[in-house]
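Section 3.1: Structural characterization of target chains.
Under the original work plan, the team committed to producing a structural model for every single-chain target entering the pipeline before any wet-lab resources were allocated. The record below documents one such target. The sequence was received from the expression subgroup and is listed exactly as submitted; it comprises 429 residues.
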Amino acid sequence: MSFGKAVKIGMLGMGTVGGGVAQIIERNGELLAGKTDINLTLQRVLVRDPSRRRAVDLPPQTYTTDPDVVIRDPAISVVVELMGGIEPARTLISAALKENKDVVTANKDLMAQHGRELLQLARRCGRNIYYEASAGGGIPLVRPLKHCLVANRIKCIIGIINGTTNYILTRMSCDDMDFQEALARAQKLGFAEADPSSDIEGRDAAYKLAILAGIAFNCPVDPGELSIEGIKNVTRADIHYARELGYTIKLLAIGEEKPGGLVLRVHPALVSLAHPLASVHDEFNALFIEGDLIGEAMFYGRGAGALPTASAVVADIIDAVRSYERADKGLYANNLGKTKLLPVSVLNSRFYVRFLAQDRPGVFGALATVFGDEGVSLDMIIQKRKKNGIAEIVLVTHDVSEELFTRPLEKALRLPSIQPDAGVFRVLA
């Protein structure tokens, strides 16, 4: 049975997520029509190889290798970009907007680096760009920030927004794996790419943070200006000590409003086991938000995967159709203001430091003196003897400015009894 208003959409790319969109339309199309009175049909789909077998059998004439066939089709009102990358996606989205079509995209790289110019173009064309899936995959993040929480002044956002790194750190914690073993497991299960550098170096999370911070704080954000640290330096020993101290280690994407501007950064941090983010495991993602009206809220779910991400894409398509019928123009093209990005050096934080030291009298006293002389007080201390005359000393500081902390750390690493490869991580307050 088919009912509801017939809407034809065009799709650029039919990889993992595109196949998921096609599956949802086939599997839940009647459900969607019953809920929304909108009956979706894939009118045209841009692919590299029309002869390739796909998850859903569409009529052969649906497929094309010419993007103009999708963009210029007068029957299509919404174009869905699922190609990934910057070009030709950027050019094709621009062309679709100029053809008076709304655009749905899951392209985080593009929206992080060129979202502002595309949103401004959408405004000039009187059209909208919907990009829920670009930031949270299957987790609704963009829509709540734009609509549900629009009356709030957002004080901070703290997210676990990369499933690959969260899976790796979970396996290191729960299964006592080292980094390379956990990475290999993630790759075997499809949670990590063959080249996982964008994930483990923090760039993927930085792109998503740039998108979310731009919405939450209503400002343009260049991901190239963010402070980014990955998880390569997290060791099994750090995981063990964190647990002994009452923490777990997570890769966090954090945006905070401070006097004079914003501080945006991605880095691993010790998170108290009592914090809601500590219970976010494996490939799951979460975003913790603090607003002046709502207080604290957290959004949780699968941040990636074919069907979760496709679910967000289909929701955006429905939003686009409804807005088109109401002639809502430029709703998602925010009039972004300007906000200064501040360096992380303006922050205060607690720090975890793991030193390797020669196991002999006076070493710990020398460390304590170096930190004390610089006015950095210590909150927690662990000292354990290792093999071959080497001891591990773990210190957790009280709150201290980032700038002040670096001075005693550099002095400590110059002590003749201290090895230079210390593990240093911030502690989430």
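The longest helix spans residues 16-36.
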